[in-house]
Specification:
Radius of gyration: 22 Å
Strand order of the largest sheet: 22-23-1-24
CATH superfamily of the largest domain: Enolpyruvate transferase domain
Number of strands: 24
Strand content: 25-35%
CATH class of the largest domain: Alpha Beta
Largest sheet: 4 strands, mixed
Shape: elongated
């Protein structure tokens, strides 16, 4: 199993290209199942989760061709995927595939909408709380799907097709919004989704569906109005830049000091997080090709944040922010309101010398002058990258084990950091 070795204490200087957003690329790939025409997606990141979903889609009969990067092309533009689901050959998404990645559960909506029948395993994936799929099922039932659960599978059918309806989510769910949005594109009549997730990735999927001929109002708001169509066209769409990767690299620069430009990054997708990071004393400015991050040896001010659905502080940046606040000159507080169990990184950060106390959903971080390198273990995707940030800021050597978590969500992380002066390398097990 691969490990990552970091010698901390180096300032970061240079440019880092931001990859396409994983959390948009996955539902966009699934959207290809809605049409028999070709859907071309540009700027798709090369990640373990993307590659796994590609296998799942091929299993359903989606034809996938990939163009790699052109020599001399734009550094932060990833691969181009051409997806064609002329015929759906299998309406079952088996346990061995869905259990490895939760987002593959989102094939349920397109399968019912287009094929009128689906058998999809209940998901496994990252071990963060229970993450129930009830909201997904509730939304699809509202559109007329008949749903049973048997032997760990969702059995769904809509013999007469789906029909538009009003779907009101009792709480905000990105996954459920994606699933119902995709299904509604092929439902008869109008669907209104209330309390929809407002994340930029949801907006990106909606924008792509508009290019595919679906009329959608309210993109970027909590109320989406979708006019379903009998047939959906192909399209060409570029995946938006990954705001979580952007936020992660901002905090890496903030933790180590330095001056880095993030190519392709968008401030508008991270307003609340940027406010919180600026509060710590880090300079973040918009430049023509992205964002520039500067911290010149000044101490980090302690800051309190609470994770919230978009436009609030993202739960996917909580672990990284905790690693940053471990070095602040005072006490910071982080409250996690989205997922239970999302503090698994705390004990590993403590191995590096961080002083963190947990009380239910709240972490209190007393900043320390020095973090010291140590062997640590990644527990999930975001936790693993928080250890990278802490390792970059620590004295001496840090070894991070189980880095396969990182490969699920960060494209060429070590390469991007080492180009800016970080002493970081992957040690292959083989």
């Amino acid at each position: 199993m691969d490990r990552i070795k970091i010698i901390g204490g180096e300032r970061l200087q240079g440019t880092i290209p931001i990859s396409g957003a994983k959390n948009a690329a996955l539902p966009l790939m699934i959207a290809s199942m809605l049409t028999a025409d070709r859907l071309t997606l540009k700027n798709v990141p090369n990640l373990a989760d993307v590659n796994l979903l590609a296998r799942i889609l091929r299993n359903h009969g989606v034809d996938l061709a990939v163009d790699g990067k052109r020599s001399g092309g734009v550094a932060h533009l990833g691969e181009t995927f051409h997806l064609t689901a002329r015929d759906i050959v299998d309406t079952t998404a088996p346990y061995e595939m869905v259990s490895r990645m939760r987002a593959s559960f989102w094939v349920l909506g397109p399968l019912i909408a287009r094929m009128r029948i689906a058998k999809v395993s209940l998901p496994g994936g990252c071990a963060i709380g229970t993450r129930p799929v009830d909201l997904h099922l509730q939304g699809l039932k509202a559109l007329g799907a008949e749903i049973d659960i048997d032997g760990g599978y969702v059995l769904a059918k809509a013999p007469n097709g789906l029909r538009g309806a009003r779907v009101t989510f009792p709480k905000v769910s990105v996954g459920a919004t994606h699933n119902v949005l995709l299904a509604a594109a092929l439902a008869k009549g109008e669907t209104v989704i209330e309390n929809a997730a407002r994340e930029p990735e949801v907006g990106d999927v909606a924008e792509c569906l508009v290019k595919m001929g679906v009329k959608i109002e309210g993109i970027g708001t909590s109320t989406l109005r979708i006019q379903g169509r009998d047939r959906i066209d192909g399209a060409i769409h570029t995946v938006l830049p990954d705001r979580i990767e952007t936020g992660t690299f901002i905090m890496a620069v903030a933790a180590t000091g330095g001056d880095v430009t993030l190519l392709g990054a968008r401030a508008s997708d991270l307003t609340t997080a940027l406010q919180a990071i600026r509060h710590t004393g880090v300079e973040i400015s918009e430049v023509p090709d992205g964002l520039r991050i500067v911290r010149n040896g000044t101490g980090l001010e302690p800051t309190t944040v609470e994770t919230q659905p978009f436009p609030g502080f993202p739960t996917d940046l909580q672990a990284q922010f905790m690693a940053l606040m471990a070095r602040a000159t005072g006490t910071s507080v982080i409250r996690e309101t989205i997922f239970e169990n999302r503090f698994m990184h705390v004990q590993e950060l403590a191995r590096l010398g961080a002083d963190i106390q947990l009380h239910g959903d709240t972490a209190t971080i007393k900043g320390v002058k020095v973090l010291k390198g140590a062997p640590v273990m990644a527990t999930d995707l975001r936790a693993s990258v928080s250890l990278v940030i802490a390792g970059l800021a620590a004295e001496g050597e840090t070894t991070i084990n189980r880095v396969y978590h990182l490969d699920r969500g960060f494209e060429r992380l070590e390469e991007k950091l080492s180009r800016c002066g970080a002493r970081i390398e992957r040690i292959s097990a083989g």
